[in-house]
Fold:
Amino acid sequence: MLTLQGLEKRFGALAALSGIDLEVPAGEILGIIGPNGSGKTTLLNAVTGVYPPSAGRIAFGGADITGWKGHRIARLGLARTFQNIRLFPTMTVFQNVWAAQHARTPGGLLGLLRSRPRPGGGDTRRVEAALEQVGLLASREVLARHLPLPARRRLEIARALVVDARLVLLDEPAGGMTPAETADMARVIREVVAPGRTCVVIEHKMALITGVCTRLCVLDFGRKIAEGHPDEVLDRAEVREVYLGGVDASDA
Amino acid sequence: MDDYVITVLSNIGMISFVALSAYLLLLTGVISFGQQAYFGLGAYAAGAATAMLLLPIWAGILIGACVAGLMAALVGALTLRLRGLYFSISTLAFAEMVRLVLLIVEVQVEVDGELVGPAGAEGFHDIRWMFERDISLGEFMLLIYALLALVLVALLLIERSRLGSIFRMLGSDDLLADMQGLNVVGYRVLAAGLAGVLAGIGGALYAHFTTYVEPQFFNVMLGVHALAYGLIGGLGTAFGPLIGVAIDVGFLEAVRFIQGYRMIVFGGLVALLLIFMPRGLLDEERVHRLKARFRRRGDAHAAGS
Structure:
């Protein structure tokens, strides 16, 4: 589904990513962990076309997307969330999800001039289904900026659901959440996002990583230092040294 | 109505086109200091159409709108790849280029034994369509407001449309819009073209209302004011910039005693609003609340009847 070959990203003299080779087969939930500044978000930004990589190749679903603009990559069936949550704050919950669906299929010049649907109207079934799946249907008329943090993260996920993305990239989906909210997010990822999709999850919270990921990749200083089954990877001495500072994984 | 009132009202109407032009670009999240260039191009093109080619006024306005719109789309295609301030500066640079070129362009033709056409710094005089047909200022004002109403309805329809949503998505967060599959530059070029058309219509009307145009009128102050109108009146609806124009040209003009201090009052007003209401009087959130209230009232009414 997603293949990275020798991926490299430099910002001036700083090598944020170097020599990353990664293969994400269809249906997998890959977790990416690593200390702050290890290149996790840079990797995600390079894959989604926020900026082009400095070297290496990126292939998605059989197409070489190296250097493509973000909107072209998105249209191939890729959706993402953001570490610092990005929503359209002055749009309602409903409008945010509808906008995501509409951005993929503007429908030509005549389609653009049609009026925007109101909740409950014509082609809003998919939007409402997505909101239902993340438990936000009752808040559909609320402005996005008025939502509490866990609901905002779920709204970002509803956006990925409505466009039927094949690959969903989640950047710290449980960031800033309590243990109970984190458990709820893990359930949403397992039961709603994962079925029928391939996922890449960046996360610090071990509860979420061990709860949802089928495979784990560890980054440090922009390099991949380990990859494999979560239990086995987290047990390796070098991973515990770099990432957990020698603390037992179960304490984190 | 005396001629003074008609002139003030007509000015409000004509300036409104530039204000709406700057507003449309603000919606998509880019700040242009150069919409006066398209007002000027519209004025010159429309003046040339009626005074030099002796075409009817509707053709003049159409030509003015098209010339301004095409030019704006072309310039937009070249400059909208620039980000933020760099784009804004490029719009200013282009507008100054247009003004300086108009200062030296002399193209005159003989019409009824007289030379007519742009004469460089002298301006473009004798755009006499109104005199030749004995049309009063009042009647022309009606034409201005008829076209303004048409443009306003079109803009309100765009805002309700899917295209309007896309414009607001770009304005709210262009990275997010890009990540969701929207060609940000492409849609902004479209908005720039439409904004050029709006400014061009305003310019075309202006040329015929005053019967002459000169490059000095299309200086940067017009562009800065056009931007300020949207920021004062609000970016939540197309009525916002119109309120901004009415406050500046209407209210400040009418209150004679502050006449000499007009720019000071205007500048202070802009500063205060930017601090307390950064997206203007009628911003998105207030518009959302007003709409929700109207809808509830409408629903209650429907239930009661």
User: Anything to note?
Assistant: Chain A touches chain B at residues 48-50, 69-71, 74-75, 79-80, 82, 86-92, 95, 98-100, 102-104, 106-107, 111-116, 141, 143, 159, 163 (CB under 8 Å). Confidence is low (pLDDT under 50) at residues 246-252 of chain A. The longest helix of chain A spans residues 179-193. The longest strand of chain A covers residues 14-24.
